[in-house]
């Protein structure tokens, strides 16, 4: 068995049904002797664990990408509708193959993919779509652009994903779809989400913007709902600056997606519907195609490095890794995220903890400052004529009250995020240094009282 096979199957499958530490028991050595990390914190003048060492460059770039871009530039075929242009079409075929989907439509961004799917499903004014408050604004932008109503359900604070119980609680007669977001590149509770959708006859649009090649019960994310949407923005594990993709197995629905994203013009060349122009260009496709040869190797490395970090964290109670649901068989590890428990660090606030880690050479971030339920877009739409016309006054009054998401607030307050697209491509030594920095600050936590 290769280490890649271990990471992808045994580690993550076991992690989803029990303890992550138990998953790697006997395979990754334990590091329980924290006393060895005693010493003066770098914040107070000690020697950093990782002094001035760079992380792998990001966005990822190699000769294959440069050659692919140069070839497209020289061809003169820069738009997918030009005669002879094959880049976007080839990318669509390859991304469908890699994800196990029958069809793919490439777009100019992940947000465009989401909006395209909402329109293709016939969702518009008067309709509601339930999604997460803990996500990029692009998620709700895809709903708002169709003048539908994004309904925000609260989170499971251990997984940072939608809480299926609150999702079901928010369903009403106007609910048309669920839009689960696979946060950090890990599957949400898809068993529950899909069961709820089936029970209430709802469509499912998977927001897999962060979840390239992640798997639930051996199936790639994006292939489990009616459609799945991806982002190829610069920070993502597969990136081209912007760019997006829709995948699905329903040919008729995917043809509608093509028509919508092609300003309402179908594959037959007839203008048949209302739609924006969301086509991916040939340069974006060239950048993505140039990365595909090594994509699976990089995916395996992130999973292996994430497994190592999780094993090391078992002895550091102030950092609790993101909960993975039963059925998780691989993650994209776009982000490696943890809950910060200040009660295990003498009550030291998160900002001071981050400052101490940064001095050791490891940077963590709070990630999303506040959930979308606390942003001013809610006041904006409640005062728009189209929303006042298409939604009953009582519904709009209740909508504001229903936007409270206290568990999301808790996640925002306690989040500790390591951006992973680049760093998790590091060496084993890099991972050792990250974990050593965590341990050093934890072991020497009493020193932070004077920081």
Tell me about the largest β-sheet: 7 strands, mixed
What strand order characterises the main sheet?
A: 1-11-10-7-6-2-3
Beta-strand level of the residues, as a percent range?
5-15%
Backbone shape: globular
Taking pLDDT < 50 over at least 5 consecutive residues as the criterion, the unreliable ranges are: 1-32
Question: What fraction, in percent, of the residue positions are helical?
Answer: 25-40%
Q: Please state the CA-atom Rg, rounded to the nearest Å.
A: 23 Å
Structural class: alpha/beta
In the CATH scheme, the class of the largest domain would be: Alpha Beta
Q: Would you tell me which CATH topology of the largest domain applies?
A: Aspartate Aminotransferase, domain 2
The overall pLDDT, averaged over residues, is: 92
Number of strands: 15
Tell me the number of helical segments per DSSP (H or I, 4 or more residues long): 17
Task: Give the name of the CATH architecture of the largest domain.
Answer: 3-Layer(aba) Sandwich
Distance between the termini: 47 Å
Task: Give the total of domains.
Answer: 2
User: What name goes with the CATH superfamily of the largest domain?
Assistant: Type I PLP-dependent aspartate aminotransferase-like (Major domain)
